[in-house]
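Anyone? Bumping this.
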Amino acid sequence: MARNVKPLTFTEVNKAKPREKEYTLSDGQGLMLSVRPSGSKVWLFKYQKPYTKKRTNISFGSFPEISISDARKLRLEALTLLAKLIDPREHKEQQTQGKLAELEYTFEKVSESWMAVKSSTVSENYAKDIWRSFELHVFPKLGKLPISKLTAIETINTLKPIAAKGSLETVKRLCQRINEVMDFSVNTGIVNSNPLSKIHSAFHAPKKKNMPTITPEELPQFMTTLSRASIKLTTRCLIEWQLHTMTRPNESSSARWSEIDWGKSTWIVPAERMKSRREHSIPLTPQMLELLNIMKPISGHREFIFPADRDPRKPTNSQTANAAIKRMGYQGKLVSHGLRAIASTALNEQGFNPDVIEAALSHVDGNEVRRAYNRTDYLEQRRPVMCWWSEYIEAATRGLSNNTLSTRNLRVIGD
DNA sequence: AGACCTCTCGCGAGGAGCCT
DNA sequence: AGGCTCCTCGCGAGAGGTCT
């Protein structure tokens, strides 16, 4: 039976003097204050462990940091746990363990684990790009924070300066990457939910800026300027090659002699060099073959068709064409990538099958179902299209407008 | 010499257990 | 249940050793 104990008063506890030996003051129901010879006063709760019924005690902290009423609240909590057959100490340990674990999982640490998984599905360079963006914009403010303590408002405030600078695309990517880390920590059981899933809506979406380009009508002027421009022959040929083949700057500048199938009159860009990671074949037109003939004495003995100016063992830098176009006075009006847009516009205006045009541009079909059924690359249908386009460029070079060309006077080459 | 690391040791909070 | 005493272990100060 519980003994009848008179509850302690503040004065009793406050005035309790240390003695040579430790002594205790009881408040009842297992709660007592241990007064130590050093003068420190510690709240202890004495109880029987559930099941084993072994006597033990747990500390509730020191007086005056923990007041009498605090200690009584803690006693009530402990008694409630005991009623449910939960050992208050084990419960407390579990809670501290949980808290400790939470504190250990900082945003930076979890990001590292996430990156270990992520890096297997992305290229090395992209993985580096992701990590660098975290190092620059996220880790300085949020890296050391436990991931469980991360709030939307704090994360948004961290990204605000980047948005204010106008780097909305960076903000969008950071939001997306941070969310990948958060989802990872949910899936691995570090946190229960992701409070950051909507942070992107706190920012303006980046406005897509289409790469500047000229209209097909302006092509003759461009070709004239190109022919008069003070640029190296290799760069000139590269720009023309890019224009004729409708390839992306990186795909055309790194073209290798080994990728040319002379027999089938086709240039085969291997999958790993394509943006879409799918092999891309381009039917060669007489105009393209002519460009290769010009380059042969220059680089025929080398790996790359358009070797770099400084080190001919390397391909021309993909920015070289852009720099040349800029110097030609087309800054803000045309970039190397825009050459593809001219082709697309001209071919669509001419009424060619849009699917064939898309295939020529090696655009991946946005429609997944259509993509699944539409595996053909229209290689043979593309030959006349490419020839028409090459003729069109040639006409532009002679200063003719597109009206003088029609699909009737096509010359189909290859088999 | 100063910086940095490792080890030792005392203190004290909290836990264990016997006595009444 | 309450009282009493002793034990354990983590922590931090500081001594001492090692590296640059």
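Late reply, but here is one note on the structure posted above: The first strand of chain A starts at residue 23 and ends at 28.
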